[in-house]
Every structure is written in structure tokens, then in C-alpha cells.
Amino acid sequence: xxxxxxxxLSNQKIAQDVYEMxxxxxxxxxxxxxxxxxxxxxxxxxxxxxxVCDYDANSLTLIYKVVxxxxxxxxxxxxxxxxxxxTGLGNGYNLSKSGEKPLLxxxxxxxxxxxxxxxxxxxAGKHPVAVxxxxxxxxxxxxxxxxxxxxxxxxATADGSMGQKGFVTDVVKTLQDYSYFYTCxxxxxxxxxxxxxxxxxxxxxxxxxxxxxxxxxxCSCKTKYGNKxxxxxxxxxxxxxxxx
Amino acid sequence: MVDIKTSLSGWQLDNxxxxxSGTFGFGYEFSELYDINLLGSISLKGTTKEPRFGNPLPRIxxxxxxxxxxVGLQNPGIDAVINEELPxxxxxxxxxxxxxxxxxxxxxYAYTCEKIxxxxxxxxxxxxxxxxxxxxxxxxxxxxxxxxxxxxxxxxAVTTKPVYIKLSPNVTDIVSIAKACEDAGADGLSLINTLxxxxxxxxxxKPVIANTMGGFSGPAILPxxxxxxxxxxxxxxxxxxxxxxxxxxADVIEMMLCGASAVQVGAQNLVDPFACKTIIEQLxxxxxxxxxxxxxxxxxxxHE
Lengths: 244, 304
Hints:
The complex is a heterodimer. Helix content of chain A is 16%, strand content 36%. Chain A is globular. Chain A has two domains: 2-89, Beta Barrel (Elongation Factor Tu (Ef-tu), domain 3); 95-241, Nucleotide-binding domain of ferredoxin-NADP reductase (FNR) module (Rossmann fold, 3-Layer(aba) Sandwich). Chain A contains five helices and 15 strands. Chain A is α/β, with parallel strands linked by helices. By secondary structure, chain B is α/β, with parallel strands linked by helices. Chain B has a single domain (6-56, 72-199, 214-298), classed as TIM Barrel (Alpha-Beta Barrel), CATH 3.20.20.70. Helix content of chain B is 31%, strand content 18%. Chain B has helices at 78-90, 106-116, 139-142, 145-158, 174-183, 222-235, 249-258, 268-271, 275-289; strands at residues 6-8, 11-13, 17-19, 60-63, 66-69, 97-101, 122-128, 163-166, 188-191, 195-197, 200-201, 206-207, 214-217, 240-243, 262-265. In chain B, α2 packs parallel to α4 (145-158), α4 (145-158) packs parallel to α5 (174-183) and α7 crosses α9 (275-289). Chain B is globular. Chains A and B meet through β13 of A and β4, β5 and α8 of B.
């Protein structure tokens, strides 16, 4: 974990209530896709945890949905403004288990952490397949970005306005011979993914957090391997250890 | 050069800044961030006889200038604390610590305190009779002078180390409870624990915290904490560790002027993991600014 100031490079709306913020700063504490940052915002006591969508040696990309005071404040910020970030939080996804053809299953703002994961898997010579679910066409983002990586990308929308009508699980059910899966999204989706998938995989969970770095025990959960802190030993848990 | 040392029951501390129980785990994880040996001491995560998972989630809510937690004393239990957590801390921290103990009966408190009393690393036993997040425990003991005194006597009977009772602010008269603890043999007092509070989620129209209520902490409660330390200081002779909303060096000085011999920093650690380090580093500058040469000179200085 590292605490440092980042400078906003850009902050733009990419779908309904969804923004993409690019920041420049020290990303050396980030060790895996699926980790998150915790952002301090003026006038708000608790930091806001947001998953890292993409990162390189000196910048990172965050995608967030405006759902409350903190994210609304973020959406009004401009290029050049600074943000105090804790970086390198959480465990992130384990790439070594992917096999040749892993599925990346994302729902809504659960899609972002899968983007850098896809990038790293492709760089490692793997052939990931993305299944991205949204409510409607106006909510869809990053379809082209995944495709530009050379990742076969399926879109599902609940209202059928783009891609397959239905949920990500409706697409997953039609796919065969995948080697592993990585998923992130709302908990009902995660549970449905757990039920329809045929292989082992990894789930990234979201929870209300106090500190984001393991000090307060605010986000503990029970697993088959004992109590874990979503912010520290998570947010990624393996399929075999999850207790719903 | 200014003198930032202080003492608690004959134990010399390099400085008065101590991370508060429940906001710093068992300390060793913070040693990845900085050398935690610069801290005055560390108040460890609240420990009970048996392991506890704590309350259902969500356990955390935000408030103006603060937060609410309802963790519910999640901890691995006294045996695991002694056999696993303390050795990990000992590897990176070379001072004495404050062990924070909770219980659900007088016998529980005595059992757990007697065990922790055997540990060389423990300088003070801080007995939490004020956790707002557990039913039939914790705060029940801290809300009447009789029950707080009963716990104090039971713990004193089985321990050799200084015993500090951590008091609840959720009472009508904290002074009478403080005096009852002093009369029962307490060596010092820690105050205040969190204030009972709650928030409601307008989207669900239900409480944010799964347990409905939780402990309110953060800068918003500093004035309440200062007032209670001030009142208790007038009434007792034993030392006070002041806490509640402390987030900067100036707050530490204010707390000591009200009567605290040392100061704990709680919620601020959760939003700024370097908070205690920063406060310790800033303390000499703020003291010089207010012409304070020796920190111990100002303890209780706000009183007539």
C-alpha cells in the first residue's frame, strides 16, 4: 500500500452515470489487476474505494458510477486537480490459474477490473473471452476497448437493446471449453455465475469499507478458510472458499 | 528542544500518541508503512475470551465529520492473541503495548485479563466496559457505577499490571462511574469510547448498519470527549488517557489541557494510515507555536 497524490488527466462520461477518470501518479504499489484504490475527497470523512480498471508505470484509469455524494463529487472534478489515493489495496486476481481460455464475466461497474486483467492475459499469450452485462444499451461501456485487445466480447443487456437479451449467465450457459473464469459484479450476479459455471474461478466482491487496508474489520466475511477482510485478503475470493 | 515525553502509572512514554483499540489491528500490519516504534504505545484490538466474528455487514456508515462502526468486537480470542498476534507484533515493535479486553460477564473479564497479565509485552490492561456494539456485554458494565466497579475489582484481584477502565460516554453521569472505578482500585481511565448513533439509507429507507446502531467516532465527537475528560479530571486523581475525535497535534494538546496524560487516536487512522506518525512529528512545532516546553506541564492546564 502506498499513499500519494495523483493528478487528474481526464474525467469524462462514458455511459449513463458512468465516468472514466485517468490519473497520473505513483502506481508502484499496484501488483495485480483486481486491486483497488481508496480516494480521499474534500469534506467527506471516509475514503471511497474504486477498483482499478487499467494501470501502467505512471498512470491509472478508474471507472465509477455516480451513486452517492462521493462519486457525484468525483464526477465534477477537472483535469489538473489532485486526489489523495491509497494504492495497491486488496489481493487482486491470480493470473497463474487462468489456463488457455478463461472467461471474464463482468456486470455493470464490475466490468472495469476485468479490463487490465484481459490486457495482462493477452500479453501472456492467453485467449480470454469477455462476457459483459448491462441493463441497457445506454449503460454499455468498454465494449470496443475489450475488442481492441483482441478479446472475443459478448454483450448481454437485460432489456435486449444491445447484444443478447438477458443476463451474463444466459451467455455463459452457451459457452463451452473455457478453462477458468474471473468475475466481478453485483452480488446476485456473482451468485448466479457461481451456479452456472463449470470450472473453478475467482469472484471480486464489493462491501462497505471503513479503512480499505485491513485495520478496522469493517468488511469481514466468513469463508471456508476462515474469516477474511474483503479489503485485505479480498476483494477476490476463489470459488471453492465462498460461503453464500 | 521541546519535551514530548509523558508517563502513565510510572511507565515512561516517548510521546503521548497511541493508536486507539480497533483502529490499528494488532499493529504489525502498519509496520509495512512506517517504523511503528515511534508511537508512544499501541492499544491493541479489543480481545475477548472466545474468538468472535462480530456483527453482520454492513458494519460501517459515514457521518458528517465522522463515521459509525458496528464491528462487534471481531477478534481471534485471547489464546490466539497471545500465541499468534503478540509474537507477530513483537517481531517489529519493541515497546510495551496496551491490551484492550472485553467480556460478557465479570468472570469473562477476570479470566481474559488474568491471561494477558502474564505477557511481558503488556504495559497496561485497558478494560473495555463500554463497547456499544455487543448485546448483553460491554456497555452494560460501563453504564452503572456499581457494575463498572464490580468489573474493576474482579480484574484487579487477578492482575499485577496497571488496569485502566475504558468508559462509555453513553451515560447520564460519567463522573460517578469514573469515581466508582477509582474507588474500586482502577489505576487509570480511558475515555471516551464511541457515542451510540445511527444512519438511515434513503434508498432502502432502512438503517445503514445491519445492527441498526453503532459507535459514532471521528472529529465530530472531539468536543464531547474534551468535555468528559475535563469533568472526570476534576473528580479523580488517577491518570486519564483521552480519546475521541483526535486528528491532529493541536487536538492532542487540547486533550492534555483538559486533563489527559496520554492521548489515543482512533478513526483518523482509518482515513489516514500515517495519522499517528504525522501527529508525533508535528507535536514539537505546535508546542513551540503555543510556547509549551514540556508536555507534562500542561496536563489539566485548562482547569482553574
